[in-house]
């Protein structure tokens, strides 16, 4: 797994330091695109899963369907408002105690961006994201074969880690020679 420089393709992307790592087939052949620099910006995109881990800066022109925020320091969530979308609202996972603060942040940024041209009552807005609060030791089902374990992390604000793993079904050796029809009977 060696990092390779990936040049940005949009003016909104981080201006430097975006790397790409390809994991070996034994680990799922996933690609990790992004950067992580303490107190600056952390964002990692996995295109095969269409997920973003933290959003301190934009590292892809894609709008991922799921975003996993570890915590709400700006170097991990500053650009979240650039990924909300009415046409494809992302699911944003974050520590449960940070949900209200993130909701307020997104709403205020949208009001500021519109220069007051939108109704300041968020109840009148079209949904453009879904905030999902998570807690330590929670186990999430993600897609058909992926599970996500939530871990408590030690930080100055509520913080969580995400452990992704793939569940594969394998037949016991004594049944492997049978066809699916034979197994069903």
Automatic annotation (TrEMBL):
SUPFAM superfamilies: Metallo-hydrolase/oxidoreductase
Name of this protein: Metallo-beta-lactamase domain-containing protein
Database matches in InterPro entries: RibonucZ/Hydroxyglut_hydro
Species of the source: Adineta steineri
């Amino acid at each position: 797994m060696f990092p390779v420089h990936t040049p940005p393709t949009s003016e909104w992307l981080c201006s430097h330091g975006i790397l790409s790592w390809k994991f070996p087939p034994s680990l799922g052949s996933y690609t990790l695109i992004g950067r992580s620099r303490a107190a600056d910006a952390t964002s990692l995109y996995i295109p095969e899963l269409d997920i973003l881990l933290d959003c301190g800066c934009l590292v892809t022109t894609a709008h991922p369907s799921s975003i996993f925020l570890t915590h709400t320091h700006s170097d991990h969530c500053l650009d979240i408002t650039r990924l909300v979308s009415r046409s494809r609202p992302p699911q944003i996972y974050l520590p449960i105690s940070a949900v209200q603060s993130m909701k307020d942040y997104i709403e205020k940024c949208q009001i500021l961006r519109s220069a007051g041209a939108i109704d300041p009552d968020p109840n009148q807005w079209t949904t453009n994201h879904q905030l999902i609060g998570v807690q330590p030791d929670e186990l999430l089902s993600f897609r058909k074969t992926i599970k996500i374990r939530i871990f408590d992390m030690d930080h100055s604000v509520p913080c969580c880690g995400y452990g992704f793993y793939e569940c594969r079904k394998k037949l016991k050796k004594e049944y492997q020679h049978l066809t699916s029809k034979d197994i069903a009977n």
